[in-house]
Design brief:
Elements (H helix, E strand, L loop, with lengths): L4 H22 L2 H38 L2 H33 L16 H4 L3 H6 L6 H7 L2 H16 L5 H24 L2 H16 L8 H25 L4 H7 L1 H10 L2 H15 L4 H14 L2 H17 L6 H17 L6 H12 L14 H26 L14
């Protein structure tokens, strides 16, 4: 009997963890990092290959299937309201936990690496928001700039619905056909997920090991507890209140969540997230193709929470006592910075410099947390994808979709 994909991924994760740890003990970690990791790179490149054409075709086909401007506006409003609400809840959770635990107070943490150049890569929030409108849509697609690509695709799909026949029908059928082809291609790439997951996990452990964890144990515990509260309490509560079963949904999304954990990229996980939401959770393509691409770009609950905790930790480590107003500024900036963060590994880490600059903290403080960022990146990406998928089924339920397979039993 063939193992289900999520079990294959679990085995690959465990095997990668074991081999990565052994490589450090036996002295062949360079082989894991330089050679075996190529398998993971090939897998990620394959996923990234389909992201832009899949986002364009899925959003355009999704918008055309939604139909009227009224329906589009209603779903857009629900989606935006959900994403802002969950991101704020995540940030506030992180803020409360970091103030309770205070991991940075008295922390004896030296700079693990020189963070030069990180600040130069941090996009300013205003520029990020302005950059949503592309001056050249094709250039945005070629460069993999997801926000402007989504913006153009939304407009293009909407105005297809406003066009007369036969052009309306022809374009609708064209993009629906492209989307079907992209999903077929995506299914083929997904078959290699266990191999890619093994290579990525083995590389991560071979690079970092476990010796970097102890000096930052309190900081890591704070982040992990905060992420856990949001993922295990807050989001399931929203699912439950919407009449959905958190356990059923978690089971339906298991493959996507494990892939998100290993790749540290919500964008790279998007193809598998869409497949899991539609095939396992039962949400319609109309809803998932609209909500998920937006979520993979602007809904970063885990990233927003992490950025808030990291900024507060750095402030505590430097002995800076932030006022209520400054902490409120951290919350607001973390929300906006998470929207501007790309769905790629370490994107949230880069955006921390925006928050530090907003409250006047030294940018070199990011060097204190650099050593363990990769490990936490895996966890926060998993939370990002969990939130995206939860939002999709909640919105699908609000749209009275009848095919959902994660409905809560009336007796529970």
């Amino acid at each position: 009997m063939k193992l289900k994909l999520h079990w294959q991924i679990v085995i690959a994760l465990a095997f990668g963890l074991l081999i990565g740890f052994m490589s450090r003990g036996l002295g062949f970690e360079s082989f894991m990092i330089d050679r075996v990791s190529i398998l993971g790179t090939i897998f990620l490149r394959g996923l990234r290959m389909v992201i832009v054409p899949m986002i364009v075709s899925s959003i355009i086909s999704g918008v055309t299937s939604i139909g009227t401007a009224q329906n589009l506006g209603r779903m857009g409003l629900k989606t935006f309201a959900y994403y802002v609400t969950t991101s704020l809840l995540a940030i506030i959770t992180g803020l409360i936990m970091v103030n309770l635990i205070q991991p940075g107070v008295g922390a004896q943490v030296g700079l693990q690496a020189t963070p030069e150049g990180i600040a130069a890569n941090a996009a300013k929030i205003g520029e990020t928001l302005l950059g949503i409108i592309p001056t050249n849509p094709l250039e945005a697609m070629v460069n993999g700039d997801i926000l402007p690509t989504i913006f153009f695709s939304l407009l293009f799909g909407f105005f297809i619905t406003q066009s007369p026949d036969p052009y309306k029908t022809q374009l609708t059928d064209l993009f629906s056909g492209i989307f079907e082809v992209m999903m077929k291609l995506t299914h083929f790439i997904i078959k290699f997920t266990p191999i890619g997951v093994f290579a990525l996990m083995a590389k991560t452990i071979a690079q970092t090991g476990f010796d970097v964890i102890l000096p930052l144990a309190a900081y890591m515990v704070t982040v992990i507890l905060s992420l856990g509260i949001h993922a295990i309490v807050t989001l399931p509560a929203l699912l439950y209140l919407a009449g959905l079963s958190p356990l059923k949904h978690a089971k339906a999304m298991s493959s996507a969540l494990l892939t998100a954990f290993s790749t540290s990229s919500s964008s790279a996980t998007l193809p598998l997230t869409m497949e899991s939401v539609e095939k396992n959770a039962g949400a319609s393509n109309k809803t998932s193709s609209f909500v998920l691409p937006l979520g993979a770009t602007i809904n970063m609950d885990g990233t927003a929470l992490y950025e808030c905790v990291a900024a507060m930790f750095i402030a505590q480590a430097y002995g800076v006592d932030l006022t209520f107003g400054q902490q409120a500024l951290v919350v607001l900036t973390a929300l906006l910075a998470s929207i501007g963060a790309a769905g790629i590994p370490m994107a949230g880490f880069v955006m921390i410099t925006v928050i530090l600059g907003a409250v006047g903290l030294p940018l070199e403080g990011v060097g204190m947390i650099l050593a363990v960022d990769r490990i936490l990146d895996m966890m926060r990406t998993c939370v990002n994808v969990w939130s995206d998928s939860s939002g999709t089924v909640i919105i699908a339920k609000s749209e009275k979709e009848t095919g959902l397979q994660v409905l809560r039993d009336v007796s529970t």
